[in-house]
Amino acid sequence: MELKITPSISIGENEADLQAIRAQGSGGQNVNKVSSAIHLRFDIKMSSLPDKLKEKLLNLKDSRVTNDGVFVLKAQSFRTQEQNREDALARLVAWIKTATVVQKPRIKTKVSRAAKARRVDVKKQQGAKKSMRKKVEF
What is the pLDDT averaged over residues 33-57? Predict the structure, then answer.
């Protein structure tokens, strides 16, 4: 099955290594018996993603990416293994999708002459107000 990231980019579901593990936290006896959490490992370097996108993902400052270039994710929000599996894959797709967004370049602008004049006028008004607070000398 294919995971669609953008209309032109998709990855195979088999590229993500999914393992069922026991979930942490409270839950009584059931939590000790059932492996409902999912541990997802996605090797960025070995994936079928475009090289530019791989480079962008590897350069992200994300603690979930290991030094070897493997994205590690743990999904344990839901009680069933299937829901956690879907959640893990959805979070992987969302993470990759964030790297596909191209930020538009910032255009440098200057402060207008009128804005500078307004700022100076306000400063003069503030100064006049404060000068009225001074001690009166006769």
Answer: 86
